[in-house]
Specification:
Distance between the termini: 30 Å
Number of helices: 11
Structural class: alpha/beta
Helix content: 40-55%
Order of helices and strands: HEHEHEHHEHEHEHEHEHH
Number of strands: 8
CATH architecture: Alpha-Beta Barrel
CATH topology: TIM Barrel
Length: 273
Protein backbone atom coordinates (compact mmCIF):
# COMPACT_ATOMS: atom_id res chain seq x y z
CA UNK A 1 0.00 0.00 0.00
CA UNK A 2 2.59 2.60 1.09
CA UNK A 3 4.91 1.50 -1.72
CA UNK A 4 2.27 2.83 -4.13
CA UNK A 5 2.10 6.07 -2.14
CA UNK A 6 5.84 6.71 -2.31
CA UNK A 7 5.74 6.29 -6.09
CA UNK A 8 3.83 9.60 -6.22
CA UNK A 9 7.06 11.27 -5.07
CA UNK A 10 9.55 9.02 -6.86
CA UNK A 11 8.18 9.37 -10.36
CA UNK A 12 8.49 13.12 -10.86
CA UNK A 13 10.27 16.31 -9.82
CA UNK A 14 7.00 18.16 -9.51
CA UNK A 15 5.78 16.87 -6.16
CA UNK A 16 4.78 19.87 -4.06
CA UNK A 17 3.71 19.89 -0.45
CA UNK A 18 2.51 22.53 1.98
CA UNK A 19 4.54 22.37 5.18
CA UNK A 20 3.25 23.57 8.56
CA UNK A 21 6.53 22.59 10.23
CA UNK A 22 6.99 20.97 13.62
CA UNK A 23 5.40 23.92 15.43
CA UNK A 24 2.46 24.44 13.09
CA UNK A 25 -0.20 27.13 13.03
CA UNK A 26 -2.16 27.69 16.26
CA UNK A 27 -5.41 28.66 14.52
CA UNK A 28 -7.18 25.49 13.34
CA UNK A 29 -9.64 27.45 11.17
CA UNK A 30 -6.77 29.05 9.24
CA UNK A 31 -5.04 25.68 8.97
CA UNK A 32 -8.26 24.26 7.52
CA UNK A 33 -8.56 27.08 4.94
CA UNK A 34 -4.89 26.91 3.92
CA UNK A 35 -5.06 23.16 3.29
CA UNK A 36 -8.19 23.52 1.14
CA UNK A 37 -6.59 26.26 -0.94
CA UNK A 38 -3.31 24.34 -1.29
CA UNK A 39 -5.11 21.26 -2.60
CA UNK A 40 -7.22 23.32 -5.02
CA UNK A 41 -4.01 24.93 -6.26
CA UNK A 42 -2.35 21.60 -7.03
CA UNK A 43 -0.31 20.58 -3.99
CA UNK A 44 0.02 16.80 -3.62
CA UNK A 45 1.10 16.65 0.03
CA UNK A 46 0.33 18.28 3.37
CA UNK A 47 2.90 18.23 6.17
CA UNK A 48 1.34 18.76 9.59
CA UNK A 49 2.50 19.00 13.18
CA UNK A 50 2.10 15.69 15.02
CA UNK A 51 -1.02 16.66 16.96
CA UNK A 52 -4.27 14.74 16.88
CA UNK A 53 -6.53 17.79 16.54
CA UNK A 54 -4.51 19.00 13.54
CA UNK A 55 -4.80 15.59 11.87
CA UNK A 56 -8.59 15.72 12.30
CA UNK A 57 -8.66 19.24 10.84
CA UNK A 58 -6.54 18.09 7.89
CA UNK A 59 -8.86 15.19 7.09
CA UNK A 60 -11.88 17.53 7.18
CA UNK A 61 -10.06 19.98 4.90
CA UNK A 62 -9.22 17.26 2.35
CA UNK A 63 -12.85 16.19 2.24
CA UNK A 64 -13.98 19.80 1.76
CA UNK A 65 -11.37 20.40 -0.96
CA UNK A 66 -12.74 17.48 -2.98
CA UNK A 67 -16.25 18.94 -2.76
CA UNK A 68 -15.03 22.43 -3.65
CA UNK A 69 -13.01 21.12 -6.59
CA UNK A 70 -16.18 19.64 -8.09
CA UNK A 71 -18.00 22.95 -7.63
CA UNK A 72 -15.18 24.86 -9.35
CA UNK A 73 -14.59 22.17 -11.97
CA UNK A 74 -10.96 21.82 -10.89
CA UNK A 75 -8.98 18.59 -11.05
CA UNK A 76 -7.05 17.93 -7.85
CA UNK A 77 -5.12 15.05 -6.35
CA UNK A 78 -7.94 13.06 -4.66
CA UNK A 79 -5.53 11.33 -2.25
CA UNK A 80 -2.88 13.81 -1.13
CA UNK A 81 -0.07 12.44 1.01
CA UNK A 82 -0.26 13.35 4.68
CA UNK A 83 3.11 13.85 6.37
CA UNK A 84 3.23 14.11 10.18
CA UNK A 85 6.29 15.91 11.54
CA UNK A 86 8.07 14.85 14.72
CA UNK A 87 10.95 16.97 16.03
CA UNK A 88 13.60 14.89 17.77
CA UNK A 89 14.29 17.89 20.01
CA UNK A 90 10.65 17.71 21.21
CA UNK A 91 10.89 14.13 22.43
CA UNK A 92 14.57 13.74 23.31
CA UNK A 93 14.00 14.30 27.04
CA UNK A 94 10.90 12.10 27.33
CA UNK A 95 10.95 8.51 28.47
CA UNK A 96 9.76 5.96 25.91
CA UNK A 97 6.29 5.59 27.42
CA UNK A 98 5.73 9.33 27.13
CA UNK A 99 6.95 9.29 23.54
CA UNK A 100 4.55 6.49 22.65
CA UNK A 101 1.70 8.31 24.35
CA UNK A 102 2.50 11.44 22.34
CA UNK A 103 2.77 9.91 18.85
CA UNK A 104 0.94 6.58 18.81
CA UNK A 105 -2.19 8.15 17.26
CA UNK A 106 -0.12 8.61 14.07
CA UNK A 107 -0.55 4.90 13.36
CA UNK A 108 -3.85 6.07 11.83
CA UNK A 109 -4.08 4.70 8.27
CA UNK A 110 -4.71 8.23 6.95
CA UNK A 111 -1.16 9.26 7.90
CA UNK A 112 1.14 8.18 5.07
CA UNK A 113 4.56 9.51 6.05
CA UNK A 114 6.31 10.09 9.38
CA UNK A 115 8.63 13.07 8.93
CA UNK A 116 11.44 12.98 11.52
CA UNK A 117 13.32 16.27 12.00
CA UNK A 118 16.98 16.10 13.03
CA UNK A 119 17.97 19.70 12.32
CA UNK A 120 18.06 20.98 15.88
CA UNK A 121 19.73 18.10 17.70
CA UNK A 122 22.65 15.70 17.59
CA UNK A 123 21.07 12.45 16.45
CA UNK A 124 23.91 10.34 17.85
CA UNK A 125 22.57 10.83 21.38
CA UNK A 126 19.05 9.88 20.30
CA UNK A 127 19.48 6.58 18.51
CA UNK A 128 17.15 4.80 20.91
CA UNK A 129 14.39 7.31 20.16
CA UNK A 130 14.94 6.83 16.45
CA UNK A 131 14.78 3.06 16.89
CA UNK A 132 11.52 3.44 18.82
CA UNK A 133 9.90 5.65 16.16
CA UNK A 134 11.00 3.53 13.21
CA UNK A 135 9.83 0.32 14.91
CA UNK A 136 6.45 1.83 15.85
CA UNK A 137 5.88 3.02 12.28
CA UNK A 138 7.54 0.15 10.44
CA UNK A 139 4.59 -0.07 8.02
CA UNK A 140 4.72 3.59 7.05
CA UNK A 141 6.98 5.69 4.87
CA UNK A 142 9.74 7.38 6.89
CA UNK A 143 10.95 10.82 5.86
CA UNK A 144 14.28 12.03 7.25
CA UNK A 145 14.40 15.82 7.49
CA UNK A 146 17.97 17.05 7.86
CA UNK A 147 20.53 19.74 7.20
CA UNK A 148 24.20 20.29 7.99
CA UNK A 149 23.35 22.59 10.88
CA UNK A 150 24.05 19.83 13.43
CA UNK A 151 25.25 16.97 11.23
CA UNK A 152 28.58 16.40 9.54
CA UNK A 153 28.56 14.74 6.12
CA UNK A 154 29.61 11.41 7.68
CA UNK A 155 26.91 11.57 10.37
CA UNK A 156 24.32 12.49 7.76
CA UNK A 157 25.15 9.46 5.61
CA UNK A 158 25.27 7.15 8.65
CA UNK A 159 21.84 8.38 9.71
CA UNK A 160 20.35 7.73 6.26
CA UNK A 161 21.82 4.22 6.16
CA UNK A 162 20.34 3.46 9.56
CA UNK A 163 16.91 4.72 8.54
CA UNK A 164 17.09 2.75 5.30
CA UNK A 165 17.70 -0.44 7.27
CA UNK A 166 14.31 0.12 8.92
CA UNK A 167 12.24 1.39 6.04
CA UNK A 168 13.97 -0.19 3.01
CA UNK A 169 12.11 1.14 -0.02
CA UNK A 170 9.84 3.34 2.11
CA UNK A 171 12.33 6.14 2.73
CA UNK A 172 12.16 9.81 1.72
CA UNK A 173 14.91 12.38 2.32
CA UNK A 174 13.99 16.01 2.96
CA UNK A 175 16.87 18.49 2.80
CA UNK A 176 16.88 21.98 4.30
CA UNK A 177 19.31 24.91 4.41
CA UNK A 178 20.84 26.16 7.64
CA UNK A 179 18.40 29.05 8.35
CA UNK A 180 21.37 31.06 9.59
CA UNK A 181 21.43 33.78 6.97
CA UNK A 182 19.43 36.92 6.33
CA UNK A 183 20.03 36.34 2.64
CA UNK A 184 17.77 33.41 1.76
CA UNK A 185 19.95 32.55 -1.26
CA UNK A 186 22.59 31.27 1.15
CA UNK A 187 20.04 28.83 2.54
CA UNK A 188 19.22 27.73 -0.99
CA UNK A 189 22.91 27.15 -1.72
CA UNK A 190 23.27 25.09 1.47
CA UNK A 191 20.20 22.97 0.65
CA UNK A 192 21.29 22.26 -2.92
CA UNK A 193 24.89 21.46 -1.88
CA UNK A 194 23.59 19.13 0.87
CA UNK A 195 21.37 17.35 -1.66
CA UNK A 196 24.38 17.04 -3.96
CA UNK A 197 26.40 15.40 -1.18
CA UNK A 198 23.56 12.98 -0.41
CA UNK A 199 23.18 12.08 -4.08
CA UNK A 200 26.91 11.46 -4.58
CA UNK A 201 27.88 9.89 -1.25
CA UNK A 202 24.70 7.96 -0.45
CA UNK A 203 22.21 7.46 -3.27
CA UNK A 204 24.85 6.74 -5.92
CA UNK A 205 26.91 4.56 -3.57
CA UNK A 206 24.71 1.48 -3.99
CA UNK A 207 21.94 0.31 -6.35
CA UNK A 208 19.67 -0.33 -3.35
CA UNK A 209 19.58 3.42 -2.58
CA UNK A 210 19.10 4.50 -6.18
CA UNK A 211 15.35 5.26 -6.11
CA UNK A 212 15.16 7.06 -2.77
CA UNK A 213 13.45 10.43 -3.44
CA UNK A 214 14.79 13.79 -2.26
CA UNK A 215 12.58 16.76 -1.40
CA UNK A 216 13.82 20.29 -0.76
CA UNK A 217 12.27 21.48 2.49
CA UNK A 218 11.28 24.81 4.06
CA UNK A 219 11.38 26.60 0.69
CA UNK A 220 10.18 30.17 0.25
CA UNK A 221 10.05 30.28 -3.55
CA UNK A 222 11.07 28.42 -6.71
CA UNK A 223 14.66 29.72 -6.78
CA UNK A 224 15.86 26.43 -5.33
CA UNK A 225 14.36 24.55 -8.28
CA UNK A 226 16.22 26.79 -10.75
CA UNK A 227 19.55 26.36 -8.95
CA UNK A 228 19.18 22.58 -8.62
CA UNK A 229 18.49 22.25 -12.35
CA UNK A 230 21.40 24.55 -13.19
CA UNK A 231 23.77 22.52 -10.96
CA UNK A 232 22.39 19.20 -12.23
CA UNK A 233 21.36 18.10 -8.73
CA UNK A 234 18.52 15.53 -8.96
CA UNK A 235 15.46 15.98 -6.74
CA UNK A 236 11.84 14.84 -6.66
CA UNK A 237 9.86 17.62 -5.02
CA UNK A 238 9.67 20.85 -3.06
CA UNK A 239 8.09 21.61 0.29
CA UNK A 240 6.85 25.20 0.70
CA UNK A 241 6.49 26.68 4.17
CA UNK A 242 2.87 27.62 4.92
CA UNK A 243 3.66 31.27 5.77
CA UNK A 244 4.53 31.95 2.14
CA UNK A 245 1.12 30.72 0.97
CA UNK A 246 -0.60 32.42 3.91
CA UNK A 247 0.67 35.80 2.69
CA UNK A 248 -1.76 35.60 -0.25
CA UNK A 249 -4.79 35.48 2.04
CA UNK A 250 -7.07 38.27 3.14
CA UNK A 251 -7.43 38.63 6.90
CA UNK A 252 -10.96 37.24 7.02
CA UNK A 253 -10.23 34.23 4.74
CA UNK A 254 -13.58 34.84 2.99
CA UNK A 255 -13.70 34.70 -0.82
CA UNK A 256 -16.09 34.72 -3.72
CA UNK A 257 -15.72 32.07 -6.44
CA UNK A 258 -14.02 34.63 -8.71
CA UNK A 259 -11.58 35.55 -5.96
CA UNK A 260 -10.80 31.87 -5.27
CA UNK A 261 -9.98 31.27 -8.94
CA UNK A 262 -7.74 34.35 -9.01
CA UNK A 263 -5.99 33.27 -5.81
CA UNK A 264 -5.38 29.79 -7.19
CA UNK A 265 -3.87 31.28 -10.36
CA UNK A 266 -1.57 33.56 -8.36
CA UNK A 267 -0.26 30.76 -6.15
CA UNK A 268 0.26 28.41 -9.10
CA UNK A 269 2.20 31.10 -10.95
CA UNK A 270 4.45 31.83 -7.96
CA UNK A 271 5.04 28.27 -6.73
CA UNK A 272 3.92 25.47 -9.01
CA UNK A 273 4.05 26.47 -12.68
Amino acid sequence: MENNKIDIIKKNSKFYKLDFGIDGLDNLDKTYSLIILALLTGFSGIDITAKEEILKTTLRAIKKAKTKAKELNIQINPNPLIFASIGMNQISNLDNNKVLEKIEFLKNDEVNIIDIHFNEIDFLSNMKKLDLICTLFKDKIISVNLSRKKLSNIHMIDLLKRCFNYSKKNLVIEVEGLRLYENSFNDILQAVSTADIINKQFIESSPKYKKIPIIFGDCKNKDIEKLAFKCDVPFNGISFFYKNIKSFFKNNYSYSIEEINLLISEIRLNYLD
